[in-house]
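[09:14] KT: can someone run the structure on this one? pasting the chain below
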Amino acid sequence: MMARLALQLSRDKADTLLLLAATLLVLGPHAAHLPPWVSLVCAATLAWRGLITFRGIRMPPTWLLLPLAFAAMAGIFMTYKTLLGREAGVAMAVLLVAFKMLEMHARRDLFVVIFLCFFLLLTNFFYSQSIAMGVMMVLAIIALLSAQLTFQYSGVVPPLGRRLLLGAKILGFAAPLALALFFLFPRLQGPLWGMPGDATGARTGLSDSMSPGNISNLAQSDEIAFRVRFKARAPAQSGLYWRAVVLGDFDGRNWTHARRRHRGESTQLSLSGTPVDYQVTLEPHGRTWLFALDMPGSVPVLPEQAALTPNVELRAGVPIDKRLRYDVTSYPTYQLDAGVDLPEAERYLALPRGFNPLAMQAGLNLQREPDPARRVEQVLREFRDGGYVYTLQPPKLGPNSVDDFLYSSKAGFCEHYASAFVFLMRAADVPARVVTGYQGGERNPVDGFTVVRQSDAHAWAEVWIRNSGWVRVDPTAAVAPGRVERGMARTLAPSEQSGIARLGSLINLQLDGDSLIGRLRYQISAMNNGWNQWVLNYDPERRQGLLDTLLAALGNWRNLAALAAIAALLVVARKLHVRRQADPVDALYSALNVQLGRIGLARAPHEGPNAWAQRLAETPLAPDRKERLLRFLALYSAHKYADRAPDAALLTTMKRLLGTSR
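[09:31] RB: done, structure tokens below
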């Protein structure tokens, strides 16, 4: 349809519409992050330019465009409070391209728009680095190259399809060099696309505090928190507790990060059983914590020094503002601070005064049971048999949040159960604390990675038992065992599920690996993971590994011989292809040059067919021979500057003239 429309328009209009379409491909994705008014101004400006093109009316005068441009810049300043920085700079560049479309009076202006679009094309990767964005920008490059080529033609313009194909070929010629530079050229540490200030942006993820609603909000998100590749068989779903933050301080409403108050106190960690080795690919979250299975037995080797805190939390030396890959070994069987006494026991028994009197009395009643382990069992039995409900949409709680949950609503998410359980344990004189992280994960059978999403965020408890140490207790599992055994998506009602699971429920589709939709989802996830691993997270370590592999492969003489043979075959095939594709008229032209070279009249390197003919016309040759030579060159010139293939009659005539001009 676009090609037919181009045929009905004049060349200037068709060329402008092609540039307009290429500009839309570049500017369109920016609408997802720009302020709405900027997108509306750009859309109105481009629509105005399209109307001018179709109707052939005059461009707006400068006295009208200047106030609009100054008003737009003022709007940028009012929106961002600055004209500097990434966000304001991109918005100004987008508006500049849109306004420049209304100020194209000379050919130079066309190329200014094209070059600005090439720059803006790169800025799209500041906001999205997905495969879809990459494909869209490749299409935009082809469109921009085609528009640039279009403005270069001075005679007959090839059809649009041929110009787009030529633009794709130009990009294809550049691709091998770009790939070689990407994979082999040394690079600086850091993300493929980003700026130093990117780390300050808001991100979805766990925080160092917990109050009712924090984790249930994360459970609505399908964003990926991290991916894991196990080096052997993965543990069972119920054993996938990804430890992150220990919360030990409670003010009546919020649980906050527990830090050791006394320096020099060490954690006593005894590990046993079969270790689990795995590699984590962590998405940026702007915090310092790393995730590991309960219980990590080693500290990952990172460029930014990592450490294990006294509460057995993995921490990086700097906030994680780029995708990070690290190896960990964990031990499912362990003893933490096992002994007869617990350092800082009073801290893990502390409760704020004046809050939750009913729960406080219930904890005191539990002290009648002398065995702390039995006190734990009594609370879990109450959660299991007391009519409690697992839901993302519990009623609001008052200042006495634990009392309201335990004795009124009886409905909540993991943070409600963990908070209430730890409160009861402390009131029952059992040291306890909250641990937050993620539980579970979905294994992708295509690439073998286990994907842990924000919707897998979870909170559980640890209680300290004499001679056993800190013991993990998950009160949520007593209420909703399916949350731990099958994952949250299959535990919640469809109205409470995250986007992917809800979609499958609404249209009655199975999203497991046995269904068509499930297999497609796994394939797409594996593609995205490969893109992340080999493109977005291609770091100097991977580059060195690739170089070592290539050097090892090339070090074998058989491989070198095979590569040399393949290269020779490619060269021969190329020459045969060029010879097969050679223009027969050019072959006759070369034969004429050789023939006249014998008498000192060969074509000079700087001469075209017309200049050569003019020189031959002034040489003392026989009139008949001169006439045949000049006719031959006239036919050759007409053929080379015509947009058509040589026909049989032309070749016959030129061969006859060449043969009789000796």
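[09:33] KT: thanks! Residues 160-184 form the longest helix (25 residues).
[09:34] RB: yep, looked fine to me
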